[in-house]
Amino acid sequence: MPVGALILVKPSLAGNIGAAMRVAANFGVSRLELVRPAVVGDDPEVFRWACGADRRLECRTWHSLADAAANYRTLAASASGRGRRNLPVLSPREVVPRLYERGLGQTALVFGNETRGLSRDDIDRCDLVIRIPTEPAFPVLNLAQAVAVLVAEIRLAEIDERPTAPEPAPQDEVDALMEHLRDSLLTIGFLDPRSPQRILRKLRRLFGRAGITDNEVKVVRGICRQMEWAARAQPGRFPEEHDSDD
């Protein structure tokens, strides 16, 4: 079973978009989501590199990663290990069983811009981070090559495609949870309002690694509502507590 989709964030080269289309079609991926591409989808160079693969794909363009990812249940980011000391970074072979457990058809692989890669915010939005092991002296892969390595590794693994873990919640539900959690934790004074993202980033990583389910989202949002009720009912009882950095 192929992965559900590829998401390319701010790709800048028509050739890479077309080559990614070709690789997707080679391995049965049916959807390509483009986030703010630098070239239009009907650029002749895209079609030249796609070699007809564009006719086998559903290709859509989005304004943000949040919009492109809303209906997928697992996001797996492809990123280098540089500057990721605080992130659990997995190799392709380590990540494949996890993707099958979560449901491969509801998984999107996320790739960044050719020169800058994915932003910190985009990586924080993803559930898992993958690093393709390369030669340390020359570590950066071409975008289309990275796509090829990952989709081939996943397709050739031949793991039982039936999910063995509970289905994770869609990304739009997790986004709504994070907004609710932010408001609740600010209400009780747990977050530093000057930099609330520091601890929210850690919580997002936790939910992503765990594959938080729809029911668990509802439970955590119920806790948020109870915290807000307690704060209103007993003002002044909650001490100010700020998060620490990584």
CATH class of the largest domain: Alpha Beta
Number of domains: 2
Q: Return the string of H and E elements.
A: EHEHEHEEHEHEHHHH
| Low-confidence runs | none
> How many distinct beta strands?
7
Structural shape: elongated
Helix tally equals 9
The CATH homologous superfamily of the largest domain is called SPOUT methyltransferase, trefoil knot domain
Major sheet size, sense and barrel closure: 7 strands, parallel
Quickly list its features.
9 helices; 246 residues; alpha/beta; Alpha/beta knot; single chain; elongated; Helicase, Ruva Protein, domain 3; 7-stranded parallel beta sheet; 2 domains
Description:
- The protein has a seven-stranded parallel beta sheet with strand order 3-2-1-6-4-7-5.
- It is an alpha/beta fold and 246 residues long.
- It starts with a strand and ends in a 13-residue tail after the last helix.
- Helix 1 (14-26) packs parallel to helix 6, helix 7 runs antiparallel to helix 8 and helix 7 runs parallel beside helix 9.
- It has two domains: 5-156, SPOUT methyltransferase, trefoil knot domain (Alpha/beta knot, 3-Layer(aba) Sandwich), CATH 3.40.1280; 171-233, Helicase, Ruva Protein, domain 3.
- The longest helix is centred in the last third of the chain and has 20 residues, at 214-233.
- It has helices at 14-26, 44-50, 65-69, 92-102, 120-125, 143-156, 171-187, 197-210, 214-233, and strands at 5-9, 31-35, 58-62, 74-78, 89-90, 107-111, 128-130.
- 37% of the residues are buried.
- The chain is built from nine helices and seven strands.
- The model has no long low-confidence stretch (mean pLDDT 88).
